Amino acid sequence: MQRAWIDRLASPRTGAPLELDAIRTADDELVEGFLVSKDEREVWPLIAGVAVLPRDLSEHLAQQGNVYRRSPINDPRLARFLLGRAGTGYVVVPFEEVVGHYRDLASEPPEGYDTSPHPEHVALRGLLAATEAGGVGAFVGSGVGRGVFSLCEQLDAVLGIDRSIACVRRSRNIAVTVEAFFLPAPKGSGLKEIPLDFAALTRTGADFVLGDPEALPLRDGVVDVLVLHGADSLGPWSDADAAWAEAWRVTVEGGWLVWHESLPSASLPSPVLTEGPWRAARRP
Hints:
This protein is of the alpha/beta class.
């Protein structure tokens, strides 16, 4: 995780500021450690560069324990903290989702392979260009991360927030990988994998955390653009109105709120811009 985000993060329970207890760093990246809320005497882990900040950490670790049990952990304190709580729950990355959102980056596609860009991201980029927004953004319900990279084309830094640690880890791997990255080839193509060319992907400024839409781990008024998808890799949100209230809270006055048409809520404002499934309005 990039150090620059630490001052914008907050306890998902109370909004209290978090302090960093770093265990392992690499250049300006935080790799392992704890984020501490002294007001609550609570801690949240930072593992493999990802801050794990759900509202209910024990429930999260029980439900998605498979990812933590197979994660490389260097510090024994962090290993005891996580593995002592990791349950038998199982979560995976829907790989068809990865293919659908990154197929346009295929550098050596077989004949007949669909390399068209995902229409959601084409529409989102068009809407963002119309807002002429700048600064810092967040994408709530970031899934496998492509929407975050779309925002990075226009904004200085963007934080993806998702409830699936498997998807958050995959998104971060895409953000930082320097080696080749591959998608599975379709059956009958004669290939096992298809390489992706990340040269067309804006990754600078992209980062990802594990968090709940109804309790965003961000301080008040710290993003200029907030994108709400309405669902993530674990399905629709349980309380869309609470997620919308959180979006208002973390966005600066005069900032842009962008939401997907799939977001059901009684609190939605009248959009001033519309493109494809996306709507946008300014925060008063």
